[in-house]
Amino acid sequence: MAEWVYEAGIGEARAALIEDGRIIEARLERESEGPRVGAVLGARLVEPGRVALDAPGEPAATITGLPPGTSIGARLTVEITRMALRERGRDKPARARPAEVGIPLSDGPDLRARIEAAGLPVTEAHARGADLLEDAGWSELIDHVRTGHWPFASGALWVDAAPAMLLIDIDGEGDGLALAKAGAAAAAHVIRCCDIGGSIGIDFPSLPGRAERQAIDALIDALLPQPFERTATNGFGFLQIIRRRERPSLVEQVRFDAAATDAAALLRQAERAVGHGSLQLTARPAVADHIKTHPGWIAELERRTGRPVAIAVDAAMKGAGHAQ
Description:
Elements: E1 3-8, E2 12-19, E3 22-30, E4 40-47, E5 50-53, E6 60-63, E7 75-82, E8 85-87, E9 90-92, E10 94-98, H1 111-117, E11 122-124, H2 132-135, H3 138-147, E12 149-152, E13 155-161, E14 166-172, H4 176-193, E15 198-203, H5 210-223, E16 229-230, E17 238-243, H6 250-255, H7 258-271, E18 279-283, H8 285-292, H9 295-305, E19 309-313, E20 322-323
Parallel strand pairs: 1-11, 6-10, 14-15, 18-19
Antiparallel strand pairs: 1-2, 2-3, 4-5, 4-7, 5-6, 7-10, 8-9, 12-13, 13-14, 15-17, 16-17, 18-20
Helix pairs in contact: 4-5, 7-8
């Protein structure tokens, strides 16, 4: 039976839906991502269609549904309908709408609340217990997301998040239909696992036969959970999928904020480091700086490990760094 494993890390929470020892859904929630979907908070209208939110840094949000004649500077209570998103070369502000009259202010459901609402068992992982996420392949999964390379038995997917569309290219040799079917299963897994929303394009091997293309369409329908819309696979092997996009996907979180990704991995490693005395984190400058700008993280790491923490910078260091 599938179950969620949840880990309240330092700076980010992690969760994985694990079935038969394999991660089928993976989720991250970072402190720096801004108000969550469903959050209700105060705001100020700063220009038509745009508000400044009552949150750290006064992040912007676009807003629709305001009563006609709402004046610039007006105070509002709004509900977040889509979180802020990061894309290659640009950021998108959150989206909001006027909140119902009398609704109390709230932060919106966090990751733990969302996975509990799914109705499946939830196991909380701790640094001093078995590493349930790693046992299911968490680091390997993050590496696949980081590189965009997802191998499967007869080929591999190459995943790239372009501004207009996330593109999945199926690469391999042999019979075109067999490769397309294996690629369809792998692509559906990646889309679900990484919670990819918005516009998604899948480039299959060319399938000139209509029956072959319909077989791929049917396979996507069977493997990818609803709701989504799609086109039919065309003669060039291209299929487009549209899914609801309410929050950043795992691809966006990992690929577009490398310093935050590596900082979280280093802090996770540090929590599990064995030994006594000072705990030293060695990281490249961007990762060290990211951690230093969040002094609360160091304090929390010291509290959890019972060890004083020092950060060393190594410009030659690659990846997340190491803790010892």
